[in-house]
Amino acid sequence: MKATEVPAIAGAYLFEPTPYADERGFFCRTFDADVVRSVGLDPDTFIQDSLSRSARGVLRGMHLRSGAGEAKLVRCSYGKVFDVVVDLRPDSPTYRNWVSFELSGETQVTLYIPAGCAHGFQALTETADTSYRIDRPHDPAEDVTIRYDDPELAIPWPLPVTSMSERDREAPSLAEALKQKES
């Protein structure tokens, strides 16, 4: 497994496994505490694993947490997603930058998203399973959502949106969400 820094988002990393493929399929390590430690992260801080399943065109996001925020490891374990991270840490050298990745079950690449960054994705395949490893218990009172189509971000989502949660549909603009995050 190899760790690569994401230059557009300070403190973000891609963890790329080395799959072993044969006629049966493949096997790979999707988490390695020593590799996580090698980039200065504490693997013991991750306390919760979650999984979402989405159909093609479903959009989830843009989500972040207020207060101390929430760091997470995100991986598409099956299918393919267009994954987006927005740096919303005012003291970060990459503040307000966003970057996108195509994460897939074929590569099993894991993205580390630092606390204070917003995250969202759109399913590109008929079924896309996305796995999350999170560093804090979920507290719905700290949820912050930003409009996926905020003109200030201008994220070029690759497909028409087929479905999203009511919370995502009614999300405020980036400017409004940043005020909420600070409170």
Automatic annotation (TrEMBL):
Say which enzyme class the record assigns.
Answer: isomerase
Q: Please give the function described in this protein's UniProt entry.
A: Catalyzes the epimerization of the C3' and C5'positions of dTDP-6-deoxy-D-xylo-4-hexulose, forming dTDP-6-deoxy-L-lyxo-4-hexulose.
Keywords from the named record: Isomerase
Query: What species is this protein from?
Result: Streptomyces kunmingensis
An annotated Gene Ontology molecular function: dTDP-4-dehydrorhamnose 3,5-epimerase activity
NCBIfam families, A to Z: rmlC
The cross-references to InterPro entries, in alphabetical order and at most eight, read: RmlC-like, RmlC-like_jellyroll, RmlC_Cupin_sf
Q: Where is this region: Disordered?
A: 160-183
Specify the protein name: dTDP-4-dehydrorhamnose 3,5-epimerase
| Family listed | Belongs to the dTDP-4-dehydrorhamnose 3,5-epimerase family.
Q: How does it assemble?
A: Homodimer.
Q: Pathway involvement?
A: Carbohydrate biosynthesis; dTDP-L-rhamnose biosynthesis
What sections of the sequence does the record tag as coiled-coil? none
The reaction(s) annotated as catalysed by this protein in its Swiss-Prot or TrEMBL entry are:
dTDP-4-dehydro-6-deoxy-alpha-D-glucose = dTDP-4-dehydro-beta-L-rhamnose
Q: What is its EC number?
A: 5.1.3.13
Keyword Manganese annotated: no
